[in-house]
Amino acid sequence: MAIEIEKPSVGLSKVAVSETHGEDSPYFAGWKAYDENPYNESSNPSGVIQMGLAENQVSFDLLEKYLEEHSEASSWGKGAPGFRENALFQDYHGLKSFRQAMANFMEQIRGGRARFDPDRIVLTAGATAANELLTFILADPGDALLVPTPYYPGFDRDLRWRTGVKIVPIHCDSSNNFQVTPEAMEAAYRCAESMNLKVRGILITNPSNPLGATIQRTVLEQILDFATNKNIHLVSDEIYSGSTFSSSEFISIAEVLETRGYKDSERVHIVYSLSKDLGLPGFRVGTIYSYNDKVVTTARRMSSFTLISSQTQHLLACMLSNKEFSENYIKTNRERLTRRYDMIINGLKTAGIECLKGNAGLFCWMNLSPLLEEPTRESELALWKVILNEVRLNISPGSSCHCSEPGWFRVCFANMSEQTLEVALKRIHKLMEQRRRRN
Amino acid sequence: MVAISKIATGNGHGENSPYFDGWKAYEANPFHPTDRPDGVIQMGLAENQLCFSLIKKWVMQHPEASLCSAEGVDRFKETALFQDYHGMPEFRQAVAKFMGKVRGDRVKFDPDRIVMSGGATGAHEMVAFCLADPGEAFLVPTPYYPGFDRDLRWRTGVQLVPVVCESWNNFKITRNALEAAYEKATKANLRVKGLLITNPSNPLGTVLDRDTLRSVVKFIDEKNIHLIGDEIYAATVFMEPEFVSISEIIEEVECNRDLIHIVYSLSKDMGFPGFRVGIVYSYNDAVVSCARKMSSFGLVSSQTQHLIASMLSNDEFVDSFIAESKDQLSKRHKYFTWNLSQVGIGSLKSNAGLFIWMDLRKLLKEKTFDAEMDLWRVIINEVKLNVSPGSSFHCNEPGWFRVCFANMDDHTMEVALSRIRTFMLKHNEAMVPRKLCRRSSLKLSFSRRRDDLMSPSIMSPHSPIPQSPLVRART
């Protein structure tokens, strides 16, 4: 590309040149290391094992089996009579059958303890789009959302980049297993006020990423009360709701609202997606479920910028409206994730590593603070580099999740085969052995 | 009551435009050949439905293109996991090849410059986010697609300044009009960051000629502003003159390529609006990089990428599709415009798009937009056709209407035409008695009508001098 030195370079927007896209975080640097030297059991057994990507690969066989048995229905029927109508369908309300199927699926995940109205479901291309879209609707540029730490690094981009909205962290620490407290919420609110930021909402992830744990009912009630007191919105990102190890332990904000008779529910919005529970991140299936009519209407209009492919809506409508399939999937997926979790926790324990007690998600929250030279972020990053370059495991440092306590790492376990997980555990054992000998 | 944002409470969603009122009328009473033969016929939706049989045939012959078939299911896992915002290489290669073929292989497109988006709707918004700050402006020639008001402005805060084009020269974009718009923006303290052109044009159905394109490129280069070329209708050019893309002009005219960006989609050319395949193609590396990151908010479903990659990499299918589509559009266009001219309705001479720009100026009670709205309401409520009034496209002259013709089967087209015939007959009968009373104006009105019909910009090239029932009745 020729560089025109005489002409002044034409500007791009401030949004374009800012770094709020967040890709300079170590969260992504590790991915690059993996991309350059990816582990492969046969062809590259000493490569980097990817443990920084929260994907669910444990239940694909169930999906493939469904497709093999229902290939005509899930495509466009014999002779493809449904093709034309499907290819033309661009209504931002979304396919009714798909919304119905999603509502049912969300109910099944919650053991029928909450009801979902398909007409309150707005479809977006992934939870990434859903979170950004909600932020555009709930807050003006320069306003703030409160988010408990540690949180998913992608929020820095999704909630802030193009919206101009700020994130003010609600600091949580290991003294009470990183749970949100009323004091922490108040402190964050006061902090925002002191910076002259108008707080418009609080965004929680339940089950939590990166903690891998569900939020307790009492804490959910406290969060809802706080939002009500301050008259702000509450967004509950429940993307991992189907990835709990036991059906009864996850309590959705929808259930809390139900027990309160939906009083004051118009401040509550739920984000969901099929990227984690069904393991379909490539299909870009996100949803916003809002109890606020104006938000539903506006979100639906805005979804024009990020609709779900009608081809994908059709396939998933077929799949998820098959009750036999969805019930079996939810149950089997849970069992397999639990097994995976037990495997990694026990493996780490034998190596002398403790993790936060988890009950959900595709990862565990590992405590390596005993290994830090000093209890600082720099030490954590130094240890992270050793793990990435020498042990060759891409795990995510807690600082990239804005954790206020150094030494914690998120380790994904569902995006690989059991054999690969064994290899990873062996490498960790070796690292711990070396450290013990050094000491 | 908990408040929501200014963006959410405002009217930036644009749905209060008459463009959508007609759709609402259609939705309340949609035409169906057997169930609702008196329903409203949708002629306000620019869709391409003429070539589905060809596509269906391909789909049935290629089960491996679907992840749901026995032949395709072994790609399921890999595809379902693929969320890389670079997009599948096969997808980008197939789209780049398709874009080249649509331009007669006169230019090549680099697959690495292809960035995905949530349809062209998502692409336009994404480009606006990349190129302009809130409060800055894009110039847009009128008449233009009503969706731009939402897509370019709503969440971005960017403003649009019209480049006024007029009927006397077939709505061509002139240097004067560009300069006038630029000056107007500057006087209003708006910083102009770019010019957006749609070529082929919606709603005009015309292509920009080489001279105009050169002039446009020179203009943006001199002013050092971006040029965004929306080429979403590129493959719908069914007749001479040939389509000339911005990608071709920049090979002929010196300009800073960092200013050049193309928006594309498969919604019109292929008839796949539901699949949400939007593309941003930029000659500016920084824009490609930024847009790619932003595409996270609107990636194309990997299931769809897989299907499209299969389909568009099949040369034989693509070549026959492009030819067949042109042929079908040409036939439909010719038939429709000829029949309209038979009842004295002219339209802008066009060779592309899925619609015509119909001239009903002479049917207006007065030369005002209120009169245009009155006429439009009659067309919706009495003639029961949803057509789009020119004012919703920001046309500076009342009396023009966009009428879509490619989104229906032959039978529906016949019903629409017979309704138009009936309406024009009624209208002409209503006109005659008034004119007879004023003998002095009789000749005047007759010759004016003939001039309308014979003016080269208005007459369809295919129709002989139309034997309008009005003319016959008079002589």
What does this structure look like?
The complex is a heterodimer of chains A (439) and B (475). Chain A is an alpha/beta fold. Chain A is built from 16 helices and 13 strands. Chain A has a seven-stranded mixed β-sheet with strand order 2-8-7-6-5-3-4, sandwiched between helices. Chain A has a four-stranded antiparallel β-sheet with strand order 9-10-13-12. By secondary structure, chain B is an alpha/beta fold. Chain B has 17 helices and 13 strands. In chain B, helix 5 (89-102) packs across helix 12 (302-312) and helix 6 (119-131) packs across helix 11. Chain B is globular, with a radius of gyration of 23 Å. The chains are: A alpha/beta (439), B alpha/beta (475).
Task: Estimate what percentage of residues of chain A fall within beta strands.
Answer: 5-15%
Q: Biggest sheet of chain A: strands, sense, closure?
A: 7 strands, mixed
Largest sheet of chain B: 7 strands, mixed
Please tell me the overall pLDDT of chain A: 94
State mean pLDDT of chain B (0 to 100 scale): 90
Q: Could you tell me the radius of gyration of chain A in angstroms?
A: 22 Å
Report how far apart the termini of chain A are. Answer: 55 Å
Discrete helix count of chain A:
16
Short summary of the structure?
The complex is a heterodimer of chains A (439) and B (475). Chain A has 439 residues and is α/β, with parallel strands linked by helices.
Describe the SSE topology:
The complex is a heterodimer of chains A (439) and B (475).
Chain A: H1 14-17, H2 26-36, E1 49-50, H3 60-69, H4 71-74, H5 83-88, H6 96-109, E2 121-124, H7 127-138, E3 144-148, H8 155-158, E4 166-170, H9 182-194, E5 199-205, H10 217-230, E6 233-237, H11 253-259, E7 268-273, E8 286-290, H12 293-302, H13 310-320, H14 323-350, E9 354-355, E10 363-367, H15 377-391, E11 393-394, E12 396-397, E13 408-412, H16 418-438
Parallel strand pairs in A: 1-11, 3-4, 3-5, 5-6, 6-7
Antiparallel strand pairs in A: 2-8, 7-8, 9-10, 10-13, 12-13
Chain B: H1 6-9, H2 18-28, E1 41-42, H3 52-61, H4 76-81, H5 89-102, E2 114-118, H6 119-131, E3 137-141, H7 147-151, E4 159-163, H8 175-187, E5 192-198, H9 210-223, E6 226-230, H10 246-252, E7 260-265, E8 277-282, H11 285-294, H12 302-312, H13 315-342, E9 346-347, E10 355-359, H14 369-383, E11 385-386, E12 388-389, E13 400-404, H15 410-437, H16 439-454, H17 469-474
Parallel strand pairs in B: 1-11, 3-4, 3-5, 5-6, 6-7
Antiparallel strand pairs in B: 2-8, 7-8, 9-10, 10-13, 12-13
Helix pairs in contact in B: 5-12, 6-11
